[in-house]
Write a structure and sequence with these properties.
homodimer; mainly alpha; Farnesyl Diphosphate Synthase; two-stranded antiparallel ribbon; 1% strand
Chain lengths: 289, 289
């Protein structure tokens, strides 16, 4: 089965819990709205690519890890879009969860999606239970404290934040979990894969800053100019647009160089190059090499 | 070590992650504010009491399960108190998290506490790793979908909610997780313990409704009269005050009868009777038998 089909199947399987008897229908609707229809699914595809490169032998566990990572990503978007943070009315080209369902259900849908990520992992541990603790540690560390997504977002509430630390926690941490979990689900040496994820996460964040500063909202499906409007740290603010594009290209090269020796390293490097080329929006492609 | 000391030690150990390098200090402060100083710790004490009755043999795992349950309880209070839900300015007799730290950090502290519960479980699985999946399932089901706390709270956003279902999900589910996890951590037959937790959770919810309707805010350390003001389902609204007190007493009796046969059943029944007597506030004690 193709990676994207595996990911959608695994996410649909996880979300099926919200369709079971007893679940409030509007909460279930808000959770589905947050996860479907799909975005690029960059992180779970990375997780699957790493697992394949490591000689995947427990595909249900890989699929659960990939779904868990995407569920946590979706949860973070739902909470980031809340009125008390970005107050974003659109996401992926349609109403954000709080715009469609109200802030209370957006808070609860985010909470339930965080929990669902751990439920998905717990439900698929049967294939290789000894790998579960490492997966839980990687996923928990990527979203909690001290250095996960919630911590990264919280730097927006502190008087001074270091840009590199802010981006590493808010974005890099979950990319690192994607590579670490891909390896862990395949029984590989998980922590050797962290650097690759961190580099890709940093590249993705720089690309996101570029899109926010230099694209129209139609092109990227959400409001733009938010970093400048909210005074948030941004690679474009600190490096300028051309400097940020240079930085993105350097990070993509670093990521390719960070792939550990493994049976499927050639295919993985090709995946990474293809993915990083797609990070820069069409309107800026002429700047890229 | 006394149960309360074990619980505080385990919670302090979990919260130590928020004091590690890289964590935003105000987020760490908001998380500590949500968990310390302690409330009654009813759920984790129940977890420890059940583990003891089942012949506890992996105390680190019991402590982690108890801490996880209390962290999830605290997270739910932080999010319940948000302006978009109860908009409660006080909790446990002092400012709620959003009143002290603002709504953004209250959202993130709740998120991070949810994740911390799973991090605590993952970190203590070494003692009996085969028990981890059951613990994760019980905890995840108690806070997520279809029938956990997030689902229970979401019934407040639906046009019609069944009172019993609302209370079972919002309160009973985590009490059930406390008894199920206590048994699971001790290697017992976990699901046999669910009914006891459900009965105790229902008793606790009825007592909470009574306090909200019939006590002063000084006596219980949070705003009162919220159920009526917000038009929420409540045992006092549906049964009247005297009817709600009768219901509480019947549920306490049901709980004692629901203790499964086990080595420590006598001690556990005494614990339950002592706890349920304390649920009714001083000012209403004359009504109770």
């Amino acid at each position: 089965m193709e990676p994207m089909a595996r990911i959608e199947r695994s996410l649909a399987g996880a979300l099926a819990r919200a369709a079971e008897p007893g679940c409030p229908p509007r909460l279930a609707g808000a959770m589905r709205h947050a996860v479907f229809p799909r975005g690029a699914r960059i992180r779970p595809r990375l997780c699957l690519a790493v697992a394949a490169a490591c000689g995947e032998d427990a595909p249900d566990l890989t699929d659960a890890a990939a779904a868990a990572i995407e569920l946590l990503h979706c949860a973070s978007l739902v909470h980031d879009d809340l009125p008390c943070f970005d107050d974003a009315a659109t996401r992926r080209g349609r109403p954000s969860v709080h715009a469609a369902f109200g802030a209370p259900l957006a808070v609860l849908a985010g909470d339930a999606l965080i929990v669902l990520a751990f439920q998905a992992l717990a439900g698929c541990a049967g294939q290789a239970p000894e790998r579960l603790p490492a997966l839980l540690r990687a996923v928990g560390g990527a979203v909690g404290v001290p250095c996960g997504i919630a911590a990264g977002q919280a730097w927006e509430c502190e008087p001074g934040a270091d840009l590199a630390q802010y981006q590493q926690q808010k974005t890099g941490a979950l990319f690192a979990a994607a590579t670490v979990c891909g390896a862990a689900a395949a029984g590989g040496e998980a922590e050797r894969w962290r650097l690759l994820g961190e580099r890709l996460g940093e590249a993705y964040q720089v690309a996101d800053d570029i899109r926010d500063a230099a694209c129209g909202s139609e092109e990227i499906g959400k409001p733009v100019g938010r970093d400048a409007a909210l005074g948030r740290p941004s690679a474009v603010r600190s490096l300028g647009l051309a400097g940020a594009i240079d930085r993105l290209e350097a990070l993509a090269e670093d990521a390719v160089a960070a792939v550990p020796p493994c049976a499927g390293s050639a295919g993985l490097r090709a995946h990474i190059l293809s993915e990083t080329r797609r990070l820069l929006p069409q309107s800026l492609a002429r700047h890229a090499a």
